[in-house]
Description:
Layout: H1 7-17, E1 33-38, E2 41-47, H2 53-57, E3 62-63, E4 69-70, E5 76-84, E6 93-100, E7 103-108, E8 111-116, E9 124-128, E10 138-146, E11 168-178, H3 180-199, H4 204-219, H5 228-239, E12 249-255, H6 266-286, E13 292-294, H7 297-306, H8 308-319, E14 323-325, H9 340-358, E15 364-366, H10 377-383, E16 388-390, E17 406-410, E18 416-420, H11 433-442, E19 451-456, H12 467-475, E20 484-487, H13 490-499, E21 506-508, H14 524-550, H15 558-571, H16 583-601, H17 611-615, E22 625-629, E23 636-640, E24 650-654, E25 664-665, E26 676-679, E27 685-689, E28 700-705, E29 725-726, E30 729-740, E31 743-752, E32 756-765, E33 771-779, E34 784-791, E35 798-803, E36 806-811, H18 817-820, E37 825-826, E38 830-835, E39 838-844, E40 849-853, E41 856-863, E42 875-887, H19 890-893, H20 895-903, E43 907-911, E44 922-924, E45 929-937, E46 940-950, E47 956-962, E48 984-985, E49 988-993, E50 998-1004
Parallel strand pairs: 12-13, 12-19, 12-20, 13-14, 15-16, 16-18, 17-21
Antiparallel strand pairs: 1-11, 2-3, 2-5, 4-11, 5-10, 6-9, 6-11, 7-8, 7-10, 17-18, 22-43, 23-24, 24-25, 26-27, 28-29, 28-34, 30-31, 31-32, 32-33, 33-42, 34-41, 35-36, 35-38, 37-40, 38-39, 39-42, 40-41, 44-47, 45-46, 46-50, 47-49, 48-49
Bound molecules: zinc ion.
Amino acid sequence: MAAIKHRRTALERVEKFISDTYFTDCNLRGRLFGDRCPLASLSYFQTPRRIPYEEAVVQEFGPAQVGQSFGPTWETCWFKVELSIPSAWAGREVHFVWESDGEGMVWRDAQPVQGLTKEGEKTSYILTRSLKESEPHSLTLYVELACNGLFGAGKGSMIAPPDPDRRVTLSKAELVVFNRDVYELLVDLEILLDMAQLLGEENQRSFQALYTANQMVNVCDVMDPSTFPATRDLAAAIFSQRNGESQHTVHAMGHCHIDSAWLWPYEETIRKCARSWVTVVQLMEHNPELTFACSQAQQFEWVRRSYPGLYARIQDFVAKGQFIPVGGTWVEMDGNLPSGESMVRQFLQGQRFFQEQFGRICSEFWLPDTFGYSAQLPQLMHGCGIQRFLTQKLSWNLVNSFPHHTFFWEGIDGSQVLTHFPPGDSYGMHGRVEEVLKTVKNNKDKGRVNHSAFLFGFGDGGGGPTQKMLDRMKRMSDTDGLPRVQISTPDQLFSVLEKESSQLCTWVGELFLELHNGTYTTQAQIKKGNRECEQILHDVEVLSTLAVAQDKEFQYPASQLQQLWRLLLLNQFHDVLPGSCIQLVVEDALQYYTGEQGAWLAGPSRVGASPAWWGCRGSNPGTQSTLVLNTLSWERTEVISRPGPNGKETLGMSDLGVALVSEFLTEGETANREMLCLFLPWGRALLTVPFSIANGCANQFALFDDVPLYWDAWDVMDYHLETRKPVTTMLKPLEVTLAGGLRGSVRFSLKVGKSSTLTQEIILDAMCPYLRFQTQVEWKEAHKFLKVEFPVNVRSTSATYEIQFGHLQRPTHWNTSWDWARFEVWAHKWLDLSEHGFGVALLNNCKYGASVHRNILSLSLLRAPKSPDSTADIGLHQFTYAVMPHQGSFQEAGVIQQAYSLNFPLHVVPASCAPCPAWSAFSVSSPAIVLETVKQAEDRPEAVVVRLYEAHGSTVTAWLQTSLPVKKAICDLLERPVGWGLSLEKQGLRLSFTPFRVLSVLLVLSC
Ligand SMILES: [Zn+2]
């Protein structure tokens, strides 16, 4: 019978029919569960450690009750659950329901079987889909409950420091009958209601959905399941009305972003992976169409080690093409701060792991949640077998809306990768109508491509997809008015995008995130550890490789190096290296760094050919000389400290790539005639000869208020610039500590803020083109930002910043919103402001935050955020930066080499061998080429990999000379031999470079 239907009352009628708040005594939702039955028994024991199942189940379990609370934070409770299913439930679907605000894992027969996390909408473990006589009605389960939530245990807000005394409550633990037919009707009605509401009054499809839903309520008698099939038929009829050919296709893929550490420590992440992935595998067993894209080799490795049974199931689903390894990297690393070589190792360790474990490398780079993307990444991806990239983080831009969702991204060398941002601007979709509509509506490349990605599943803290998400999307597979939603794979998506790519636009240069710019500075110790360990691993690899060439007995420490690299790569995770993690994570990260340094540099258990190993070489005990090891590929003349008879410093002359040197100039022979350093009485240094670089206040410290809008450790906002206060309170006046000759230095101390102190030694060495600022800060601030500024007499509209294997320019003005949104940027070892013929570079040994506005170069030194780590950066800091005025361009002046020298100091060790001639292993004929890496090839002890890059931004041919006995070859970044062989000529290997090209050469030793 036709009846008048008021849109609002019809909508609300359907809402109330499926409401979990109103009318549950008589509505459909109230019928979702049938009979209930308490557990036969529940007991538990508690431990501060994360222990394996075998250890847990043999403990003594005491009584536990529903309603009881457990804690404190980070403890674990193991529950023994005895249950007995009433035989009256024959033929019914029976669930074990477990509701708690802690993260749970169900164990059955000594295997993990499902994660139970209320926040991740997983509170049921299905015991049987239809209870049979023959099934065991009584069984024992264990539930491992972590006393933390999906997002840790923040006190008051998610990113607040964890509450150490938080307790989790077990609010429900029972058996229930689950009415599957009611559930299916509920999902039908939810989708129809969403269509009715979201398609809007102007859309006739909206009314079709609404009237269908209304009719379903008419037909459905909630107390009489025999009415359900007819009700469902009404829904099926509208869902099966198809789209036209032109409709957009949404490629849905299961996903579960798990931060490798963030608001919880690394150790908890291992369990998060297991909880999330076992649930995925469980879902796959009942939904053979489900796909799941999963990144981070490290997480696979954790699960492989700790959950071998689960890992075997995962391997099966990888083989079936459902569980899909993506990304190719060891972890989803920060996209800005890791060095070029670290980036290569992320891929090398990741891709080799995926190849070894799953028989193939990944073909998509996957970094949905990282705070900006280096312009060198496209080339590194190409070199590692990847030409496709997925992220979405630029949707977080505060100022400018990124103009594309599907485009070619071109790096500084010209390499291009096909890049896709899921247009729904999320990697944690729930399969809702609203989200698929947003995916279509928001797509910035309408008319260019008609396919897009849709990553569904709870994320960040793990969780992953649910059955309900899948069931929603099944109904939207091809329903007129909604985009087509097909369960897909990254390969299927990118393959169709590649086919449609002719109209795509190209974005050149970095993908800069206009947010989270404080992460270049926060947790300075983590950043320092990263830079130091990158240097240490570089040096160990160089020295160990050359040791192998020198000494057949020497064992290259391949497995130790792999282990150390993996720890360093892990710490580059996108909430660890950026410093956006809790204190527990900071402690772990620093521990990993210290372990690395301790492991090789000192002690009997040193890894590799340490400088001390080289010093012990030789056959003439008794004689004393000094060994200078240079791990860079150019000649260096530097003042070094040599413990002499009178403890005096001596000027070392180190010539070659890697050299044993025993000749020293004595003090006074060489003086720095290039520069004169004047020290002003209040502690600022001013270089005056031969260049005037400053307007009278170089090396000016400035303190800013630093209170962002929400993301404390992450964000420094534009308005902080309005709060600048110069640091001028002198604690100790300037004193001359070394009067000159080989080295001149002065020292002074300043008061910073309320109670912090800064002591600085300013050092100028003979022959050294830069002035070094060795700095120590006792930092006790809250919400302050310390920078050091160098105003210079240079006029240029752009400044240059070092990035991975190259550099790029950014504007020094704030003309457009794209310019001023970059008020705080990142750089690696140097930045430079030059005009024709002259410029000034600012070098550093562990800092990343920087900016150049107008003529002022600023280096960001320390922040003091309070969330998620209230102790962040409080304490003692030591760092060095340097200012280098130069004639000509920064390329001609050797800024790049000097920044390397500052970061890779010469190793000076006493040697027991007689003075021997200097020995050089490698040299490169062009100053434009940096030989970055010398290492043993993976799995090939007879081969050496050298990695070089063009650093000036020029096309150049260079000769690589080596004294090692080699045959030759060439390879890509994964060390796979590709292309052609290179002939070894008299001058060495002839190598051709285009701007910023990275080249890896595999040298097979001929001996
Ligand atoms: Zn993340």
